[in-house]
Amino acid sequence: AQSVAQPEDQVNVAEGNPLTVKCTYSVSGNPYLFWYVQYPNRGLQFLLKYITGDNLVKGSYGFEAEFNKSQTSFHLKKPSALVSDSALYFCAVRDGASSASKIIFGSGTRLSIRP
Amino acid sequence: GAGVSQSPSNKVTEKGKDVELRCDPISGHTALYWYRQSLGQGLEFLIYFQGNSAPDKSGLPSDRFSAERTGGSVSTLTIQRTQQEDSAVYLCASSLRWTGNTEAFFGQGTRLTVV
User: Fold this and answer.
1) Which of A41, A44, A112, B50 could join B98 via S-S bond, C-beta 3.0 to 4.6 A?
2) Under a CB-based contact definition with an 8 Å cutoff, are residues A86 and A109 in contact?
């Protein structure tokens, strides 16, 4: 069965510093990986995805994520954090072994950027 | 509309009553998901409609929960004999295809409060 883990409930970063939000996954086939962001009282917004190809994926709002097959990780990164990046971030995975597999989400990581 | 539309946005119901939550996916999207999010927590998978195939109901928490998708478009999630633990935000999402490499787009959710 597929699963995804976000080991940190909260990440605190100073504005201007780089940020990393961690995600690891488990699937039986090739993984399809996604990051979503949820701002307060807003729906989930898609940030980026990894399907195949380059391990470094670039997405919205200056975010990027690095796929690491050997470590089964897909960490979200940004070189310079903004206060406006403060939100709840979700990693998600879909198992490529099945054409009909569902998307499973992690428990979420709350990112707090201090001025 | 351009996005996933959910109604109502808020619903307060008495314990024991039945409720129906509606989701109108993006036009042309063949896959539709329902998730549940409790008070800023992670997303709990409920059900997944995949084209014309039988839905994946593996996430429905009890037989009080059911969902249907009529004509491959609008979906209704029904909760019978509501309990206080059903209080949560119910999120609907759709994706273009039910194969693995397409991301899901979310609605704003229905906040259900059972009193």
Assistant:
1) B50
2) no
